[in-house]
Backbone:
């Protein structure tokens, strides 16, 4: 990892030690630990003997991993579920579960209108979420107030948990290895050293990523089972991004871009894109375009998400038609992506499809009409975290590393507290 991470905690899953013959054994141990941890995440509370049966690991190997994972705060025993006390006989049958009480991760989603700060437990449950207005700022001005407030936000950790890392996600082209936002046009960022700045402000290891990739990672960890086979995620907001995952691994292409769907053609649309052309998906489907159209039509007093949501929920027909038009554009884009990639799952993060299944149905209908593969439209789902989606995605940037390499990822993290108290 780069200087973004001041110590080895939460380093990328593919990083290896060199010049040490023990690394092969250590890697195997970490792979086994990840297998046990993932099985407990999926099935827990679960007995060790059942973990062994599901994973093919020996009972002794599972027991060793459970001991290690419990020691570092990732797993815990659940004796109360056996009907006995802490001294219950038959440890292989004693249920273990992901420990949601000792560790936490922090997350930042830095968007155009606001930044979302969050604290998550190890199952991706939101412990705290707070939206911070960016007040129209761009460039470095977006980060100044955030860097100043970050230590205070991190000091408000519920339940005495230890924060082991900070995930920071945003749109555009993001290089996670360098901790840098290479380009984010609406925020006017170019080569922004986001990880380094946040690490200095927080004192934590920081993992930076694109928000579509982070949403994909969250789906793989906590969402639909098909996501682990193959999936495409489309994010539609003030920026339009997509991400791809195969066999549980989120794709990171050359130059740190998964791909660029922002300029997929939208026939008949004359909205001017920042690239200087018209008919680009990023311009036709963006929140900026939608909210400006609502204001221009007199549906809202200004380009504003909350006002348009209120108009839709109040039954304003003009607002409904605007949202349906965008839903159709999104459905066409998803049909194209599905035909090219042919994934097991398509996941959409878009405000109105998440709020009301009626608009997801519009997306699905357009998808079914346009897809040449004629895939079942049920493979297209809206993400199910609602208002917490981006908060969970930001934390998932850290949690994905932790679940992939739990022993390496926590090697230099603070020891979890045995009782009340918090360490940073």
Residues:
């Amino acid at each position: 990892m780069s200087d973004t991470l001041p110590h080895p905690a939460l380093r990328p899953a593919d990083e290896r030690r060199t010049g040490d013959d023990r690394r092969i054994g250590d890697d195997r141990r970490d792979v086994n630990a990840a297998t046990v941890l993932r099985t407990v995440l999926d099935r827990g509370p679960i007995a060790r003997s059942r973990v062994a049966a599901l994973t093919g690991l020996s009972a002794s190997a599972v027991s060793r991993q459970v001991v290690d994972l419990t020691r570092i705060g990732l797993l815990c025993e659940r004796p109360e579920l056996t009907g006995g006390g802490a001294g219950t006989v038959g440890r292989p049958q004693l249920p273990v579960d992901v420990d949601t009480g000792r560790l936490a991760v922090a997350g930042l989603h830095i968007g155009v209108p606001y930044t979302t700060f969050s604290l998550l437990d190890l199952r991706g449950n939101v412990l705290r979420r707070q939206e911070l207005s960016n007040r129209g700022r761009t460039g470095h001005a977006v980060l100044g107030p955030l860097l100043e407030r970050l230590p205070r936000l991190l000091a408000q950790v519920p339940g005495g948990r230890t924060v082991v890392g900070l995930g920071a996600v945003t749109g555009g082209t993001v290089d996670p290895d360098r901790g840098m936002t290479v380009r984010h046009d609406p925020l006017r960022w170019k080569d922004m050293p986001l990880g380094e700045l946040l690490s200095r402000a927080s004192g934590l290891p920081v993992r930076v990523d694109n928000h579509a990739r982070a949403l994909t990672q969250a789906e793989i960890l906590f969402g639909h089972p098909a996501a682990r086979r193959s999936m495409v995620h489309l994010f539609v907001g003030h920026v339009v991004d997509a991400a791809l995952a195969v066999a549980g691994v989120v794709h990171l292409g050359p130059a740190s871009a998964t791909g660029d769907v922002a300029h997929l053609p939208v026939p008949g649309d004359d909205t001017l894109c920042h690239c200087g052309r018209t008919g680009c998906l990023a311009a036709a489907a963006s929140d900026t375009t939608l909210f400006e159209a609502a204001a221009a039509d007199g549906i809202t007093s200004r380009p504003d998400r909350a006002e348009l949501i209120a108009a839709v929920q109040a039954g304003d027909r003009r607002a409904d038609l605007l949202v349906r038009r965008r839903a159709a554009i999104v459905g066409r884009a998803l049909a194209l992506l599905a035909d090219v990639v042919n994934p097991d799952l398509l996941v959409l993060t878009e405000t109105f499809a998440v709020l009301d299944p009626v608009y997801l149905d519009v997306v699905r209908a357009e998808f079914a009409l346009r897809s040449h593969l004629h895939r079942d439209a049920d493979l297209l789902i809206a993400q199910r975290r609602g208002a917490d989606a981006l908060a969970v995605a930001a934390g998932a940037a850290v949690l994905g590393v932790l679940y992939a390499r739990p022993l390496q990822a926590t090697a230099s993290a603070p020891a979890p507290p045995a009782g009340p108290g918090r360490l940073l």
About this structure: The CA atoms of residues 46 and 243 lie 33 Å apart. The mean pLDDT is 87. Residues 317-341 form the longest helix (25 residues). DSSP finds 14 helices and 16 strands in the chain.
